[in-house]
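Page 42, continued from yesterday. The earlier attempt failed because a stray header line got pasted into the input along with the sequence. Redoing it now with the clean sequence only.
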Amino acid sequence: MFRFAVTIAAPKLSKYLGLEVKFCDSKSDECFSTLIRDSIKYREQNGVRGNDFLQLILEARDGQLKKEDHSELNEFEKDAMLTNVEGKV
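This time it went through. Structure tokens are written below.
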């Protein structure tokens, strides 16, 4: 339990101290890392945009994420508030 906590809280320290907990074998880890690196490289070279979590990570890395404006309520929220107010009157 201690090794797991140290690995989560301070991964570099746990690796340095030899306390690192491996979540999968090194062969699987290398395969997954290669898959992700190749996907990123392909998307960047070919201008491909995915509709997935990896695309969100890439946009965050490049500072391209757009902040949504929640200042205006959508129609559903307006109707729900109106119904709630009318029901109490």
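Notes: The two ends are 56 Å apart (CA to CA).
Reminder to self: strip header lines before submitting.
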